[in-house]
Design goal:
elongated; 6-stranded antiparallel β-sheet; alpha+beta
Length: 170
C-alpha cells in the first residue's frame, strides 16, 4: 500500500510542461495573430474568459439584441453618436504536461508482459479560453491603433464591456 502511494505521488509530481498558456492578465492590446495563430492579423483587445463555452456569445447576443444573427461579426455599437463595428474571436490555449513517470512505469510493465496502469494517459491538459475583440470605424480603420483618434474612448468602452461580461450571469 505504501509503495502504491509513493508511486502515485511520483506520478502526479513528475510532469514536464510541454506548453503553458499565458499567465493571467487583465487585458492586452496587441496584434491578435501574435497571441494566437488562428486570430486575425489585427490589433485586438485580448482577455482570458473564465466562463463556460458560449457565455460570451450569449452576452453579446443579449446586450446588442442580435436575436442570434451575426453575433460577434461586425456588431454595430454606438458611442458618442459614432458607429463602430465589434468582432470577437474565441480560442483555447491549453496547458499541456507530460507525465514521464507514468510513461516509464507503463513501459516497464509492458516489457514484463503486464498490462499498463495509465493506458496512454501520459499527457494532462487544462484549457484556458481567450477572447480577442477588434473594433473598426465606418472607414474600416482599426480603432485600437495608437494613432486612431478614438483609441482611448474604445479602450475605455472595451474595459467596461469586459467587466460587465465577467460580472454578468451569462
Amino acid at each position: 500500500m505504501k509503495l502504491r502511494l509513493i508511486i502515485l505521488f511520483l506520478c502526479i509530481s513528475s510532469c514536464i510542461t510541454l506548453r503553458k498558456a499565458p499567465e493571467y492578465f487583465t487585458y492586452k492590446v496587441e496584434i491578435a495573430k501574435k497571441f494566437k495563430r488562428q486570430f486575425p492579423k489585427e490589433l485586438a483587445f485580448i482577455f482570458e474568459d473564465p466562463k463556460d463555452a458560449n457565455q460570451f456569445y450569449n452576452y453579446i447576443n443579449k446586450k446588442f439584441l442580435l436575436n442570434d444573427t451575426d453575433v460577434g461579426l461586425n456588431v454595430p455599437l454606438v458611442i458618442d453618436n459614432n458607429t463602430y463595428y465589434l468582432t470577437y474571436y474565441e480560442s483555447e490555449i491549453p496547458d499541456k504536461k507530460l507525465n514521464l513517470l507514468g510513461l516509464a512505469i507503463d513501459a516497464t510493465r509492458l516489457a514484463n508482459d503486464r498490462d499498463p496502469l495509465f493506458n496512454d494517459n501520459y499527457v494532462q491538459r487544462k484549457g484556458h479560453w481567450f477572447i480577442a475583440i477588434t473594433v473598426f470605424d465606418a472607414f474600416d480603420k482599426n480603432c485600437l491603433a495608437p494613432n486612431h483618434e478614438d483609441q482611448k474612448l474604445i479602450l475605455d468602452y472595451l474595459q467596461i464591456l469586459q467587466n460587465e461580461y465577467l460580472n454578468s450571469p451569462y
